[in-house]
Amino acid sequence: MIRALSAAAVAAVTVLTVVGCTDDRAAPADAGQLGGTVTVFAAASLTETFTELGKQFEAAHPGVRVVYSFGASSALAEQINQGAPADVFAAAAPKNMQQVRDKGEVTGAPSTFVRNRLEIAVPKGNPGRITGLADFGKTEPKLALCAEQVPCGAAAKTVFAAAGVTPQPDTREADVKAVLTKVRLGEVDAALVYRTDVLAAGAQVEGIDFAEAAAAINDYPIAPLANAPNSAAAVAFVDFVRSEQARAVFAEAGFDAP
After folding, report:
1. Lowest pLDDT segment from 5-9, 80-84, 149-153, 164-168
2. Average pLDDT, stretch 78-90?
3. What pTM did the predictor assign?
4. What is the pLDDT of residues 132-183, one digit of tens each?
5. For 152, which of 104, 146, 207, 251 could close a Cys bridge (C-beta 3.0–4.6 Å)?
C-alpha cells in the first residue's frame, strides 16, 4: 500500500514512518527480482499522479512498497542534503535538483519527465470576480501565492515581471498544495497554482488561463539518489516514471510532455 508522507517546509530531516509495516528495507536479491521499500521525495504538485503511478509500479513489482514524502522541492532538496534517507528525488524545478547534484547526492544526469505551467485558481463561482493577472496587483481581493523560494513562487515572480504587475498577496504558503487549500476553503479570492492542481481540485476550484504563464514553464527533473538504500528499485521507479504508461497518467492530469 502506498503511504504519502507530508514534508515540513523547513524541516532539516524528514522522518519517514510506514504505518502498519514492520519489514526492514531490503535491497533486491538480484536485478530481476525487486523488493523492499523505495522512498520517493517528490514535489507537492506530483501528489495525485505519483500516488497513481505508485499503485501501478507496485502492481508490476509485487515485492516493492512505494513510500512518498511530498512537499516543496526546496525543502526536500535541503532534507536530502542533510542526510534524509531517500531513493528518488523528483523536483518541480531544475534549480532544486541542482542543489542536490552540487552535494554529490545524485547518480547520473537527471531527466526532465514533464512540464507544468501556472494558472489562476479561484473558488467555485469566482466570488471575487477575478478576471486576470492584473487583479493580483490590487489590494481588494484576498490573494495567496507560494513562497518565492519554492518553484511555484519563483514561477509566479517571473510571470508578474512579464506582466508588469506588483503582486499584493495576503499570504504566502510553503507549497502549492497549501496555496490551493486556501482557495478550496474560500479563504482567498484567488491564487497562482499549477494548472494540474486546478484540474486535481475538480469542481471545488475554477481555473483562469493567462498569457504570461508561457514565460515560466516549469521543467520537472527526476533522478535516483547516490546514497539510495534501494538503488535497484530507485532506478526501476525512475524508468517507470519516464515510460509511455506513465506519460498517459501525466497527460490526463494536465502536464505537458518534455
Report:
1. 5-9
2. 97
3. 0.85
4. 999 999 999 999 999 999 999 999 999 999 999 999 999 999 999 999 999 9
5. 146
Sequence letter at residue 108 = G
User: What's the grid cell of residue 88?
Assistant: 528518488
CA triple 222-236-95, angle to 5 deg: 10
Distances (CA, A) of 187 to 172, 198, 207: 13, 16, 16
How does DSSP assign the chain, residue by residue? --EEEE--TT-SSPPP--TT--PPP---SBTTB--EEEEEEEEGGGHHHHHHHHHHHHHH-TTEEEEEEEE-HHHHHHHHHTT---SEEE-SSHHHHHHHHHTT-B-S--EEEEEE-EEEEEETT-TT---SGGGGG-SSS-EEEE-TTSHHHHHHHHHHHHHT-----SEEESSHHHHHHHHHTTSSSEEEEEHHHHHHHGGGEEEE--GGGGG-PEEEEEEEBTT-TTHHHHHHHHHHHTSHHHHHHHHHHTPBP-
- Number of neighbouring beta carbons within 10 Å of residue 168: 15
